[in-house]
From TrEMBL:
Keywords: Membrane, Transmembrane, Transmembrane helix. The keyword RNA-binding does not apply. It comes from Faecalimonas umbilicata. This is Stage III sporulation protein AC. The keyword Membrane applies. Signal peptide: none annotated. InterPro entries: Spore_III_AC, Spore_III_AC/AD. Pfam families: SpoIIIAC. The chain crosses the membrane at residues 6-23, 32-51.
């Protein structure tokens, strides 16, 4: 995992938290929830290949 990916995840987290706070204070709770859900899904799609690689490595480790 590269440091660049960690910075991208942190940037998305900061952006989503600011947007959620702004939306909550303006009375748009539903949009705030959808924004946080979209941020979570975006980050999940970014780290999904690394999770797949981890499970593949564990499978190779125990398939001796």
């Amino acid at each position: 995992m590269s440091v660049q990916l960690i910075f991208k995840i942190a940037a998305v987290g900061i952006l989503v938290s600011v947007l959620c706070q702004v939306l909550k204070h303006s009375g748009r709770e539903e949009q705030a929830f959808l924004t946080s859900l979209a941020g979570l899904l975006l980050v999940l799609f970014w780290i999904l290949p690394y999770i797949q690689e981890l499970f593949h490595s564990i499978e190779q480790l125990f398939s001796l």
